[in-house]
Write a structure and sequence with these properties.
This protein is of the alpha/beta class. Helices cover about 35% and strands about 20% of the residues. The protein is built from eleven helices and 14 strands. The strands form three sheets. The chain has a ten-stranded mixed β-sheet with strand order 3-4-5-6-9-10-11-12-13-14, covered by helices on one side. A two-stranded parallel sheet has the order 1-2. A two-stranded antiparallel sheet has the order 7-8. Strand 13 (about 300-305), helix 10 (about 320-335) and strand 14 (about 335-340) form a beta-alpha-beta unit. Helix 4 (about 135-150) runs parallel beside helix 5, helix 6 packs parallel to helix 8 and helix 9 (about 285-295) packs parallel to helix 10 (about 320-335). It is elongated. The chain starts with 6 loop residues before the first strand and ends in a 6-residue tail after the last helix. The relative contact order is 0.11. The chain binds S-adenosyl-L-homocysteine. S-adenosyl-L-homocysteine binds near residues 181, 233 and 352. S-adenosyl-L-homocysteine binds next to strand 10 and strand 12.
């Protein structure tokens, strides 16, 4: 007899779930129910789908299961930011960061284990690319955090959560700014985007994909996943400096990125985001600010100025506060919308890759093999 391996229901697209339900001789609405319980009720196993009879659950369990990310570590910052370290069956780990502000719950998710971009300021770059995440592993970060939030007692001080449905305190916004370069894992990220919008139900307007600037994929994205917000990690205004701090610039120089941005279709009222990590003495001069104004002329955008968050993996320095303010002033005086993004969750190693790096160091010193 041939042993049939069980199907991981989270791996399946919507169409594949419908097909499986049909193949099992079950009515079509069971597929909708299954999707609802996995993506909106965040069940961790088939047994938890209480809308299904015991017989139906037994039937499904014979052929399928629901996988779950394992929470390896959770840290809460004094500013309310939380960082989750999740592990997979192959022992690899990724980070997701939950940011709370103005009634929004934004989850910053990872798209790869490690990253191949090699940016000088980024700690994730230090471990190189280990592997791409599958679309369900990308989406599961949202499901896992939503489940954690749901199981938490309502905050007695805020009075929020009481008497409200579970979704009332769920994640509202998604940013692809965790570990990895999302456009280098294009197909899985596009499928994840479809599941986040279509199955979890987060609107495209509330999803931002951040890229180091993979030009052909920036051009392709609007056709494959239209109306997602796009953020570009620009971080420099000359190819000389950008080549040095972001090696990907040798392949796709600044002018090619800006040209691709000018072609990115924007819905009325929407803007591109340019991220600019300010590094002391490297890219934080008044000349840089003026060059940035010229580069972005005519592009509907906003700029997030992020003071470099120093870490053990880099000799680069954060900018002095007065430089950050001066940089912003120059942009604002030329009618660009520039916001200073203070580094959230510094006390919990919230910058890209920091928690994973620490966990790996600790493992290494405990005698485990880390890679
Ligand atoms: N690869 C994608 C997404 C991951 S990086 C990208 O390049 O956009 C997400 C953001 O974190 C980028 O804007 C990056 O410039 C910023 N970043 C990385 N390390 C940082 C650090 N040490 N301090 C401040 N910002 C950092």
């Amino acid at each position: 007899m041939l042993l049939r391996t069980k199907i991981n229901l989270k791996q399946l697209s919507k169409d594949e779930i419908c097909r499986l339900i049909g193949d099992e001789g079950l009515p079509g609405y069971r597929a909708e129910q299954l999707i609802h319980w996995m993506y909106k009720r965040h069940v961790s196993g088939i047994d938890d789908i209480t809308e299904f009879s015991k017989d139906l659950r037994r039937h499904l369990k014979k052929i399928a299961f629901i996988s779950n990310l394992k929470l390896a570590e959770r840290l809460r910052s004094s500013d309310g930011t939380e960082k989750f370290l999740f592990s997979f069956e192959d022992g690899q780990t990724i980070e997701s960061v939950l940011i709370r502000d103005d009634g929004r719950l934004t989850l910053c998710i990872s798209s790869q284990v490690g990253c191949a971009m090699g940016c000088l300021f980024c700690l994730t770059a230090r471990c190189g690319l280990i592997r791409n995440l599958k679309s369900y592993e990308i989406v599961d970060q949202i499901i896992a955090v939503n489940r954690i939030l749901e199981n938490e007692a309502p905050d007695p001080l805020s009075g929020k959560g009481e008497g409200k449905p579970p979704s009332a305190k769920g994640i509202t916004n998604i940013v692809f700014m965790g570990m990895g370069e999302p456009l280098s894992n294009f197909d899985e990220v596009v499928e994840a985007l479809w599941r986040i919008t279509g199955l979890i139900g987060i609107s495209k307007r509330k999803i931002t994909l951040s890229t180091a600037g993979i030009v052909p994929k920036i051009l392709l994205l609007p056709r494959k996943a239209p109306d997602i917000n796009l953020a570009i990690s620009l971080n420099a205004t000359t190819d000389g400096v950008r080549n040095e701090i972001m090696p990907v610039n040798r392949r796709y120089p600044i002018r090619s990125i800006i040209a691709a941005c000018r072609k990115y279709p924007l819905q009325p009222g929407r803007r591109l985001t340019f991220e600019y990590v300010l590094i002391g003495g490297k890219n934080d001069s008044a000349d840089d600010a003026n060059r940035l104004v010229s580069l972005l002329k005519g592009i509907r955008c906003k700029i997030n100025l992020i003071p470099f968050n120093p870490h053990h993996g880099s000799d680069l320095k954060g900018p002095p506060d007065y430089r950050v303010l001066e940089f912003q002033k120059i942009l604002s005086s030329r009618h660009l919308r520039a916001f200073i993004r203070e580094s959230r969750g510094r006390d919990i190693l919230a910058a890209c890759g920091q928690l994973r790096a620490r966990a790996s160091r600790e493992k290494a010193s405990a005698g485990y093999i880390t890679k």
